Amino acid sequence: MSKTTAAITGIYGWVPDTILSNADLEKLVETTDEWIISRTGISERRILKGEGRGTSEIGANAVRGLLKKTNTNPDSIELLICATTTPDMLFPATANIICDMVGLKKAWGYDLSAACSGFLYAITTAAKMIESGTIRRAIVVGADKMSSIIDYTDRTTCVIFGDGGGAILLEPSSHGLGILDCIMYSDGAGRVHLHQKAGGSAMPASKETVERRLHYVYQEGQAVYKFAVSRMADVGYEIMTKNGLTPDDIKWLVPHQANKRIIDATRIKMNLPEEKVMVNIQKFGNTTNGTIPLCLWEWEKQLHKGDNLILCAFGGGFTWGAVWMKWAYDSN
């Protein structure tokens, strides 16, 4: 009997309508379109505006689109994991809120926090539950409203991040398709270089933390860039060599959209040409947990059953990892 694996059987992405361009940022901080593009590859990003609109809205829109597109009965979904760095609130989980918003009455769910690697962590977790036979249908959401924790007076971070996300449907496969291997890492020593200082139990919110602007993303750009280039490239290469894959075997590299230079370093380490790499950072920026599902959503029509995909990510924490999968269906 063939081994049961977890396969993606549907994908849907969602981004807000409001566009924040490099020209807009030139009016907020001392920067230029040329400077931003040369260092990040980003031209614009999407922003979710409006009072009371959180990450759950991004996730719920993605899940609604996924259910409709795949003609899936909401009652058949047993699990929803939401990978996010910007939950609506500390509790309840944004996953629970999404389930309520879209009518998933028989699914249990929770949030998973691993910064930009969270979506890969969540895929790996859900896949193992399907492989074990614990569940048969799961939805994994990767979504973030990064604008909620970005300081738009800090040019080192405000040019990078945007809002958006996507959702995938995972189901069992016994045909050698789906998620075939994963490698995940973390190193808590890296937290000093990329974090949000206040708002947690170690430094609860207070008048002082707000006045000192400690509720925004803090990033030491050079240190993060150095680690991201080496770790994301190394884990992509590692999963290829571990499974005896050559560059010719790989149809697509699906990298976390952190920075175009980091993406290029990863593909070079894996000896892949540019035409095999999914890149949409120029129009969405870094949506943290949303980048990889947004790539899969945009490239879905170019994916074919049996295609080898390598998914790679690096995030704060530090966290990083890679997933090897064979795409499970031909898109219409």
**Strands of the largest sheet, in order across it?**
1-7-6-4-5
Which architecture name of the largest domain does CATH use? 3-Layer(aba) Sandwich
Q: Note the total helix count.
A: 11
Mean of residue pLDDT?
96
Please characterize this protein's 3D structure.
The strands form 4 sheets. A 5-stranded mixed beta sheet has the order 1-7-6-4-5, sandwiched between helices. A 4-stranded mixed beta sheet has the order 8-13-12-11, with helices on both faces. With 332 residues, the chain is an alpha/beta fold. The longest helix is centred in the last third of the chain and has 22 residues, at 221-242. The protein folds into 2 domains: 5-176, Peroxisomal Thiolase, Chain A, domain 1 (3-Layer(aba) Sandwich); 180-326, Peroxisomal Thiolase, Chain A, domain 1, CATH 3.40.47. α3 packs across α4 (94-102) and α8 packs parallel to α9. It is globular, with a radius of gyration of 19 Å. α4 links the parallel β4 and β5. It is built from 11 helices and 13 strands.
